[in-house]
Amino acid sequence: KQEVTQIPAALSVPEGENLVLNCSFTDSAIYNLQWFRQDPGKGLTSLLLIQSSQREQTSGRLNASLDKSSGRSTLYIAASQPGDSATYLCAVPNDYKLSFGAGTTVTVRA
Amino acid sequence: DAGVIQSPRHEVTEMGQEVTLRCKPISGHNSLFWYRQTMMRGLELLIYFNNNVPIDDSGMPEDRFSAKMPNASFSTLKIQPSEPRDSAVYFCASSLRLGKETQYFGPGTRLLVL
Questions:
Q1: Which residues of B fall within a CB distance of 8 Å from A49?
Q2: β A10-14/A104-109 pair status
Q3: The pLDDT value given to residue B99
Q4: How far apart are CA B86 and CA B36, in angstroms?
Q5: What value, to the nearest 5°, has the Cα angle with vertex A92 and ends B76 and B38?
Q6: Mean pLDDT by 10 residues, chain A (110 residues)
Q7: What is the radius of gyration, based on Cα positions, of chain B?
Q8: Which residues of chain B fall below pLDDT 70?
Q9: What DSSP state is assigned to residue A95?
Q10: What is the pLDDT of residue B97?
Q11: How far apart are CA B56 and CA A1, in angstroms?
């Protein structure tokens, strides 16, 4: 069974600092990995999807890396802003299902 | 496109009552997923459909839960009878196909069973 772990569970940083969010998974036989953002009381928004053949994926200030052999992915958010405050979840496929981590709750202080 | 649409957004009901949650996937998407999110257990997949056919319902917690997808643009998740431990946020998501595609989530239905 795929287990997904996210560390840290919560993070508070001053505006402008770079954010590093970690995700680890137990079964490295994945074909992709997704990062989602969830705002309080809202649904999940897909941020990045990295295919297993890729080592990283970038979208604006967001960059996600994937190391299948070590079972790890990292989401980098450059020059954080208060609007980046949210919970970030990673998810890996387990057959056709998605297994989610518990998330990292980020607070960016103005 | 309006994205995945769920209704109602909030539901408060009493124990023993029937609850029906509704979902309209993104037009053209062939796969639909129902998730439940709680503080204790995080996000859990309940059931998913491909081309309107249920593929895997192993995540459905009990026989009190049932889901249907009568056509490509509509799905329901029903709880009968509801219990307080069913209180959670229920999300519907859709993707173009099963497998390597991004899943797009709806805003969720917050269910409170008293």
A1: 102
A2: parallel
A3: 74
A4: 9
A5: 50
A6: 92 96 92 93 90 92 95 96 97 85 96
A7: 13
A8: 1, 100
A9: T
A10: 85
A11: 16
Question: What b/e sequence results for B46-76 when a residue is b if at least 16 CB atoms lie within 10 Å of its CB, and e otherwise?
Answer: bbbbbeeebbbeebbeeeebebebeebbebe
**In Å, how far is A49's CA from the nearest CA of chain B?**
7
Give the chain B residue whose CA is nearest to the CA of A103: B42
Q: Is A5 on the interface with B (CB under 8 A)?
A: no
| Long-range contact set of residues A59-63: C-beta below 8 Å, sequence gap at least 24 | A62/A35
Are A98 and A34 within 8 A, CB to CB? yes
Distance in angstroms (rounded) separating the CA atoms of residues B30 and B51: 5
Are the beta carbons of B85 and B60 closer than 8 angstroms? no
CA A85 vs CA A4, A35, A102, B15, B17: distances in Å? 22, 15, 16, 36, 37
Q: Give how far Cα B80 sits from Cα of A35, A89, B70, B88, Å.
A: 34, 31, 19, 15
Q: How many residues does chain B have?
A: 114
